[in-house]
Write a structure and sequence with these properties.
Layout (H helix, E strand, L loop, with lengths): L27 H4 L7 H5 L7 H8 L4 H7 L4 H7 L2 H12 L9 H9 L2
Helix pairs in contact: 6-7
């Protein structure tokens, strides 16, 4: 299910796919206090940061470091595979010379390792 389009024409999904990994945005804990969330233990000392700040920090990393970070914990896997991070890498590094491959991460990988 999807919520109604907002003024920008984007559709927001009601349930994030990361929930199947047990990692949820902190705001979800207010609505479902009984849920299991491995976000904090998976982020270690970075757990005090907001989700947005974690993503801002990861936005400073390159693809190799994002790939390595994704292998550390479930939490880092979810954050490091955030599509906008990979979209930014594709747009910045490939400068329009790419063929979209189903996801931004797949597009990036396919461009460098066809």
């Amino acid at each position: 299910e999807e919520e109604d389009e907002d003024e920008g024409g984007f559709k927001l999904k009601i349930a994030a796919p990361s929930q199947e990994h047990g990692v949820q945005p902190l705001g979800n804990l207010y609505f479902n206090p009984g849920s299991v969330n491995v976000r904090n233990t998976g982020l270690g000392n970075l757990q005090i940061l907001s989700d947005e700040l974690v993503l801002d920090i990861l936005g400073l990393l390159g693809a190799t470091h994002l790939g390595i970070l994704a292998t550390v914990t479930k939490s880092f896997y979810i954050f490091a595979n955030h599509e906008p991070l990979w979209r930014n890498l594709v747009l910045e590094e490939l400068k329009g010379e790419f063929l979209f491959n189903g996801s931004w991460k797949s597009t990036y990988v396919a461009a460098y390792h066809p």
